[in-house]
């Protein structure tokens, strides 16, 4: 006989919500923070959800944004897909102590996949160990969240940067309501991985985000993969063509709004696949430099030390690109031919800019086997270099801590992936064995994994509490500066290395800005 967890009730400005208590952690799930984006609201800015009367059940996750199927990203048992997907979830310790610092999670998934309901992001362990409040949220994905039709259909009343606006709306909800859940609105850390990390670094360059968060953590951020309006127009034109809609024809705007969501997702998937194939090293969907909400390229703002002056914890994984190669993903150029194509495109799109030559760049990979060179270049142009650029610039305006995650679980080593993209996530969330088919730690090394997880959680939560990311019993982690360039290497035993990326910086050039 299944016993339901006991209920818990909280009254916030947005309404009275009834959640549940399990393993000494309270949770409220599926709280709507913005109105539906369906029909006339499709491709429009989010609108804050109205305050609600009565008692609102909050024990089940909300719908996830419609997206292509991806077996590598389980969305959670019983979840449904619906455009009405702008909801969030709150986890808190089961006591009245506080107010506690708040950690707001932005999930990854190439701006196309994922949700806050993924079992990996169950915050019970992080809340318990870190004495923090955790908020996870949904934002619109793929074409629904990142297409910008305002230029292609200028009279259609369409808005842009929808997903970024969704996140800003959720952060405003947190500022207004989190106190009722035991959180401190003056100690909000926004953190995310991959696309979520990209949103974090973008927020640091978004003027209207000032005051909505006070610390930031960016894990494997594609910080330089943010593009301008010309690129947005090309993506929009291709998206409309795949839908069979001629923007010059009367009724084109209505046709876009009335297109079945399955067709929108299918066209978005096609664009997602096509763009990085024809334009290596770029993404189809990402925030847009619109001159308004996002005035400039985030990577340029951050490298020049002009971002929001909040402390930043940032880093990447040692073998980021191996997962993309393993999955035969088009997102990152791996083969020599595609990398050569990327260098040609970089030179063509940056006339007058002194870029590193292919030969100069390859000096950083002379120690690698031939087959691994492409993985190294792809890893660095996609993740490590932008991360270094951000750290170098942002440390002028706020404390920065730089890390590299090097530990590879036994199963990942066995199949040759190493410390690949997203492999740090089970450690951070403390969800090391997510199901009976998960072999990652069942092949051995669970105790080592638990030690690494405990240290990561202590470091991340100490940072959220307002201090340095210390694990108390492990190596000190000095803040990053351009003299020592200290990096924490996370492995079986954490250790710090000064100027870990010296060879990489010399090969690519210290002064190279974003290439696109």
Automatic annotation (TrEMBL):
UniProt keyword annotation of Signal present: no
Identify the InterPro entries for this entry: AB_hydrolase_fold, CarbesteraseB, Carboxylesterase_B_AS, Type-B_Carboxylest/Lipase
Origin superkingdom = Bacteria
Mind listing the UniProt keywords for this protein, alphabetically?
Hydrolase
Q: What class of enzyme is it?
A: hydrolase
Question: EC number(s) of the enzyme?
Answer: 3.1.1.-
- Which Gene Ontology MF annotations are present? hydrolase activity
> In this protein, which residues make up the domain named Carboxylesterase type B?
10-495
- One Pfam family, short name: COesterase
Keyword Glycosyltransferase listed? The answer is no
Q: Which family does it belong to?
A: Belongs to the type-B carboxylesterase/lipase family.
- PANTHER family recorded: CARBOXYLESTERASE (PTHR11559)
Protein name (database record): Carboxylic ester hydrolase
Write down the species. Microbacterium proteolyticum
């Amino acid at each position: 006989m299944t016993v339901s967890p006991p209920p818990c009730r909280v009254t916030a400005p947005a309404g009275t919500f009834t959640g549940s208590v399990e393993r000494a952690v309270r949770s409220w799930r599926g709280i709507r923070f913005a109105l539906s984006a369906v029909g006339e609201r499709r491709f429009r800015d989010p609108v804050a959800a109205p305050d609600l009367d009565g008692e609102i059940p909050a024990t089940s996750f909300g719908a996830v944004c419609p997206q292509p199927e991806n077996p590598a990203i389980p969305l959670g048992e019983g979840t449904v897909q619906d455009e009405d997907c702008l909801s969030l979830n709150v986890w808190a310790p089961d006591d009245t102590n506080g107010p506690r610092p708040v950690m707001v999670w932005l999930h990854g998934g190439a701006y196309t996949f994922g949700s806050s309901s993924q079992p990996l992001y169950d915050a019970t362990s992080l809340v318990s160990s870190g004495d923090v409040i955790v908020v996870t949220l949904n934002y619109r994905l793929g074409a629904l969240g990142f297409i910008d039709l305002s230029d292609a259909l200028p009279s259609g009343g369409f808005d842009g940067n929808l997903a970024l606006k969704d996140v800003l709306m959720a952060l405003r909800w947190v500022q207004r309501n989190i106190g009722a859940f035991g959180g401190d609105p003056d100690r909000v850390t926004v953190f995310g991985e991959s696309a979520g990390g990209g949103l974090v670094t973008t927020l640091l360059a978004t003027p209207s985000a000032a005051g909505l968060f006070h610390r930031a953590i960016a894990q494997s951020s594609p910080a330089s993969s943010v593009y301008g309006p010309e690129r947005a127009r090309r993506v929009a034109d291709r998206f409309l063509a795949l839908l069979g809609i001629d923007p010059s024809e009367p009724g084109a705007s209505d046709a876009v709004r009335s297109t079945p969501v399955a067709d929108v997702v299918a066209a978005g998937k096609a664009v997602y696949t096509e763009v990085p194939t024809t334009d290596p090293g770029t993404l189809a969907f990402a925030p847009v430099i619109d001159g308004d909400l996002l005035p400039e390229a985030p990577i340029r703002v951050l490298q020049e030390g002009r971002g929001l002056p909040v402390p930043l914890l940032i880093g990447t994984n040692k073998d980021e690109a191996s997962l993309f190669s393993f999955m035969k993903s088009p997102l990152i150029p791996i083969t020599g031919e595609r990398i050569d194509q990327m260098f040609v495109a970089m030179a063509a799109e940056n006339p007058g800019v002194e870029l590193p030559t292919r030969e100069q760049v390859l000096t950083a990979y002379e120690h690698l086997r031939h087959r691994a060179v492409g993985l190294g270049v792809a890893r660095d142009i996609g993740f490590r270099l932008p991360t270094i650029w951000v750290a170098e610039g942002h440390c002028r305006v706020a404390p920065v801590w730089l890390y590299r995650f090097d530990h590879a679980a036994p199963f990942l080593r066995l199949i040759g992936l190493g410390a690949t993209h997203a492999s740090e996530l089970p450690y951070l969330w403390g969800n090391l064995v997510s199901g009976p088919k998960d072999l990652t730690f069942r092949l051995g090394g669970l105790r080592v994994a638990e030690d690494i997880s405990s240290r990561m959680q202590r470091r991340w939560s100490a940072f959220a509490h307002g201090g340095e990311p210390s694990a108390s019993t492990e190596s000190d982690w000095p803040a990053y500066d351009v003299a020592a360039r200290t990096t924490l290497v996370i492995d079986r035993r954490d250790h710090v290395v000064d100027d870990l990326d010296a060879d990489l910086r010399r090969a690519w050039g210290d002064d190279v800005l974003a290439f696109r």
